[in-house]
Design brief:
5-stranded mixed beta sheet, single chain, 2 domains, about 450 residues, DUF1005, Formin-like protein 18, mainly beta, 12-stranded antiparallel beta sheet
Amino acid sequence: MDPCPFVRVTVGNLALKIPVASKPARSVVHPSSSPCFCKIKLNILNLPPQNAVVPCLPPDTQTLDNPATAATFHLSKSDLDRLASKSIFASRLCLKISIYTGRRGTTCGVNSGRLLGRVSVPLDLAGTESKPSVFHNGWVSVGKGPNKGGSAAQTQFHLNVKAEPDPRFVFQFDGEPECSPQVFQIRGNIRQPVFTCKFSFRTSADRTQRSRSLQSEQGSSRSWLSSFGSERERPGKERKGWSITVHDLSGSPVAAASMVTPFVASPGSDRVSRSNPGSWLILRPGDNTWKPWGRLEAWRERGGADGLGYRFELIPDTSGAGIVLAESTISLNKGGKFVLDLGSGSSNRLGPISPGCSPRGSGDFGYGLWPYCMYRGFVMSAKVEGEGRCSKPAVEVSVQHVNCTEDAAAFVALAAAVDLSMDACRLFSQRLRKELCQQSDLVG
C-alpha cells in the first residue's frame, strides 16, 4: 500500500511576557490575574481556526520550558497542489495569531477577550512533503509600542511554528457500512479495493451460531462475547446486535466491530443519554481468536444543537483499565470528523497516553501503558455525514501506525462503528432504514 503525502503544521511553545507597569492602571494587564489566550488560523486555506491558552511568564524569565503543542493543521496533497498552482497564493500563505487577555467566550455576540496584539508568520510549504521546516522559533514583540501604564517595554510573545511530513493511508467506503460495502484505498486518482465489509445482526437467538462461526473462521474454541460486553435484554426502546466484519481480499476476517451494549432510550425520553451509552468492541484477530483492541461508547448530547458524544479507549491485554484516547462530539446535523490525535491542540479531551508514553514519565501512569507507546501524534480520522445523509466514511491513518493489514482494518472497523453510532443514537421516534432493522422490527 502506498501512502498519500500530507503535511502537518504545528504551533507550540507559546508564552507571554507582559511588562509590569510602573503606575497602576485599570487597562494594564496583570499576568498573575489575567488569563490569556490566542486564536490561530491559516489565512487562505478553508480550515477552522483553533484556540489555545497562553501562559504568562515573569518579565525577567530567560528560559522557556513549555514544549506543548497548541494547534495543529493538516494539509492534504490537494491543499498543497492548490497553493503551488497559484504563485500569488503560495507567497501570501501565512499563519495569523491574535492574542487576547481575558476568558474565552462571547457575550451577546461580542468577544469577551481584549486584544493584546497580532502575529503573522509567513509559510513556504514547498518541499515539506519530504523534509521538515521550522518557520519561527523565539520571541516577537506584540502590541503598539509602550504600555499606557508607563512601562517602555513591549509585550513579548514566544512561539514555535514548523511543518513536517505526515504521510497517511486514505480509505473510502464505497457505500454505507450497513450495506456491506467495499473499502477502497485512495491515492490521487487511483482507487484500489483493499477490504470488504459484512454487516449483520447478532441476537440472543443466533448468539451461539455467531460465536461458533467466528471460532470456525479463526480456529479457536474461545468466544469473545462470553468475556466482553453486555447483552442486556431490556423492554422498551433499544437498538442492539449490530456487527460489522472487515475482510481482506482473500476473504479472511481481519477486524470487526460488534455492538456489545445496546443503545437504549433513557426512561421517559426518546434518546440515548450520556449516563447510559451504547458501546462497541473493536476486535482484531490474534492467537487464533478474536481479541478486543478498543471500546467505543456513544450517546446523544443535549443542547442547542444535538451532537453525537463519543469516548474511545484502548483495551489492555492485561486486566487493567482502558486507556482513553479521545472524548468529544460530532454534529448530528452536519456530521464531522472522529479524530485520534495524541499531541495536537484539537478539541479531543485526551487521557494520559501522551505523557505516559514519554521516557521520562512512563512510570507515572503504571506499566500497563507501555504497549501503547506506539500511538503518538496523529493516529487516524474518520469523516462521517450527519443524520439522514448518505454516508461513505473517509478514513485517514498515519503511516507510522500501520505495520500490517490488520492494523489498517482495525481503524476501518472503528470508522464503521462511529458511522453506525450516528444511526444508533437517532431519536427513537424516527424510523431507521430497513438495512438497520431486523425482521421483527419491520413486522412490528
